[in-house]
């Protein structure tokens, strides 16, 4: 009995232990599954689908590859809201990120009377000292304040060209702000006049590298217009402006709108400037143009505060009187009106006297027609020689009687107006003065109109037909540096700059091609160019190097002798180091003996390894892919260099 009781008790304890173990295992499984399900649900709500969750007893394992360190911490934080943080085992990885992208290098150059400031982020490989030296030289010794930051990343493509162009712009702009990066340069500056603005825009556009986007913001003060002039005509149903001035954009729009109502085609413009005699100028112009529109034909000229309204012959007197009366009453007080209704023309049996002066494109002036007296004839001829050239005047006008008393004044005024044109004709008659022709100066028509109004007085009739032609504009017609190089190359295709054998003396037959090249360079204006000398491989290398450099200098001196501005030119010898033909053949050696004209692109900095002490930083490197080359043959008919 005693043994049976012991076994019964033992069995009871074993059964209880088994049941406890089973219950504990079931409880752990329930805890594991609930923890995993709860955490997964929270991860899905938080958008953390990349996570993996597992559990072992009370421990919860978090795995997966997080896109960032912040995402990993977010996963830990979300899981910590579900279970105790001590139960979490972090086995998550963080995705490797690509290398950090290089920063965007940019710089600003600010120049004023106080000096130059540099601000921005530049590559660490950039030679700051060389850059500052180049800026100081370009700005005539101005003090440079360097506030640039550096980053140790490779220099981006285009950076050198952009900085080099900034140096070129800095040299011609005394007050400017230049913003640049590797592919874009923005230049902000102020010009002294509209003409200076056009010249600066043209010059900067010519200097800009082809692969750099250039943005120009050059402002100019409004010109002073004196006299402040407007001249509007309606002839044979056609309306036009000979001159139009306005003080504001709003005034310009108001005047043009009145002209369009009177029949003017769209596309006309008015010069906006200073010097308006009254803030109510636009109102006076609008009223005057409206009055002329009622006539249907005639002219209205406003010079400062004087208004001259000339109706066409044949306008009914009643319409003329009513219109003029209404205009006088409506005009602002400062304006004075002078209105004219010409008498109908009667048939005349005699020929109308006239004086005609013709200016040819070559600058020759021929005068014919009638002059009132011998003294007046001498005065007109002397005046023409003073205004143009003594050798270009051909006088054919004859002395005649019966001319109007103011005839000499009208003739001299017409000759003076002719100087605004590149070529044209002035015709003076007792009733009117007509001037027509071509000019390379925008706004010449307005200047002529203001001049004639001032000299001929109120009620004077004149007609202006002036055409602006860009090819005559000395600024707009100037060829680009690339065009200059191309023209030099074209000129040398069938001709070579020859030298005496073994010498740097240009051959006797080289004068013609040198004259032609000089004429091209005079049209091009100041450009940076390298004159490069080359030889074949015959002879010693040192002697060939010296000979090539000496020949390049001879060409440079020949251009100077022909009055070409060569301050931006350099002469350099390359000897036999850059052949373009086979030195084993006569044809190849002939090709290698040459002079090359290379367009030098502006560069940003000198390379510390290649620039010698004292060398111009802007010339330390000259990459061939930044040069346009025009090759001029340079050699002799024999085998010698």
CATH fold-level topology of the largest domain: 60s Ribosomal Protein L30, Chain: A
The separation of the N and C termini measures 136 Å
Q: What proportion of the residues is helical, as a percent range?
A: 25-40%
**Secondary-structure arrangement, i.e. CATH architecture of the largest domain:** 2-Layer Sandwich
Q: Total strand count, please?
A: 29
The shape, in one word, is flat
The amount of beta strand, in percent, is 15-25%
The level-1 CATH class of the largest domain = Alpha Beta
Regarding quaternary structure, what we see is: single chain
- Unreliable stretches (pLDDT < 50, length at least 5) are 604-640
Within CATH, the superfamily of the largest domain carries the name OmpA-like domain
Q: What kind of sheet is the major sheet?
A: 7 strands, mixed
Helix-and-strand structural type? alpha/beta
Mean pLDDT score, rounded?
Answer: 83
Number of domains: 5
* C-alpha-based Rg, rounded: 43 Å
Number of helices: 15
Characterization of the model:
With 641 residues, this protein is α/β, with parallel strands linked by helices. Helix content is 36%, strand content 24%. The strands form seven sheets. Strands 19, 20, 21, 22, 23, 24 and 25 form a seven-stranded mixed β-sheet that branches. Strands 8-7-6-9-10-11 form a six-stranded mixed β-sheet, with helices on one face. α3 packs parallel to α4, α6 (249-261) packs parallel to α7 (281-295) and α9 packs parallel to α10. The longest helix has 44 residues, at 2-45. It is flat.
Brief synopsis:
This protein is of the alpha/beta class and 641 residues long. Strands 19, 20, 21, 22, 23, 24 and 25 form a 7-stranded mixed beta sheet that branches. Strands 8-7-6-9-10-11 form a 6-stranded mixed beta sheet, with helices on one face. Strands 13-12-16-17-18 form a 5-stranded mixed beta sheet, sandwiched between helices.
